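Here we describe the complex-level prediction in full. Unlike the single-chain runs in Section 2.1, the two entities below were treated as one system.
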Amino acid sequence: MSEEKPVVNRELVLPGEVVDTTGLRPGVGTYAENGVIYAALLGIKNISKNFVNVFPLKGRYIPRYGDKVIGIIIETGPNSWLVDINSPYPAPLHVNEVPWKVDFGDTPSYLKVGDTVLVKVEGVDEAKHVRVSMKEPGLRKLSGGNIIEIPASKVPRVIGKGGSMINLLKEYTGCRIFVGQNGRIWIDGDVDGIALAIRAIKMIDEEAQTLGLTDKIKAFLEKESKIRRK
Amino acid sequence: MGMKSDIKLIDENGLRIDGRKPDELRPIKIEAGVLKRADGSAYVEWGKNKILAAVYGPREAHPRHLQDSTKAIIQCRYNMAPFSVSDRKRPGPDRRSVEISKIISEAFESVIMTELFPRSSIDVFIEVLQANAGTRCAGITAAAVALADAGVPMKDLVVGVAAGKVDDTVVLDLGKEEDNYGQADVPMAIVPRTGDIVLLQMDGDMTEEELFKAMDMSMEAAKYIYELQKDALRRRYAVIAQEEKEEIESIEEGIE
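The structure predicted for the assembly as a whole is:
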């Protein structure tokens, strides 16, 4: 808890700890009381553009506008589907939000319970009623492939700095991979490629705290893909 | 409480039966993140008490009628294992554990930022594996660490600690015999940063001055326990924090 003016100071903070007294503005994961800013979360302190933020290390996925997530259909209604997006809030997908012309009551012939879809969070209101949409290029029903789940807070790790980790995975496994913001990852390719990608992602999940993770995963993938080629 | 006996709970040197001074706590050990399947968890050893706490959520609240469209609900379950006491405890909720569950839920409601997760439920499970007086306080201490470990936004950790009156002396953190044969037990839950009291009960009776003295004692002890809680969380996340420094930029991209 260093109180001097930190510029790139990023340390672990716990709920209730003072994160700023110098008059910065409270950002995400913080709260202010009598001009002092405290952390509201267990996370990493970060200062950017006059804001103090605390980025969580753990926690459930909370939907935000514009997030692309992987959902699973859990219910069909006459003119909508209910999608589980791995958050405390299931999201309805209305027939107007899909790229097809669906007749009233004909929803199950397009998407059935258990189908997986790539959707975008269209809106979240103050009571956390979430709406999702499929009306955008790239959003679709996901057929084939495998889905695995990791904690949503580890999504940045799988993507890596500027997409470095995800490109590494795609390159070595030859798979098509999509990482949803909600921690669900869709992988499609040949059987061995999928198996390798899953092992690598599990490794990222388990060893998210080790230093030089990208290099470690690269070494792992290199070794494994050599065995595969033989 | 209330039981009569001729046991001397405080000896002529002013020491208690386990050799502690009146304002001394039992040894406390806290560990964070001990369960893999729970969102957050903690294990506390407090003297002879052994307590496991697990947190799930925020998750969808069921049954639906319990949902609150303005805030998350906190559902706490305090449970004693059948083998936690010397006579087998009949399993399942009883009058006592239902009460403790309720008051612990309410204690946490005042620190957790429930308004961030409307319609959801944050479930706290406190399992007493071994009981030796003061389990509700140890349970609160464990649950607070588990909540922080789960990444639940809250204003501060909560510390549970008890004080009481034994042989006409105000003492901190009553042990089994002191609880059974003493005159009063005052369990408290404290928000250490502000000094707010989020739980205060009293079993037995004591004078006003004695009560205030007991509360002051607990308040002092809470600061020490607070440090133990923070230390447990730091130990758990120290390694992660190091790496985080390197990759924080990618998280920022996700947040913006």
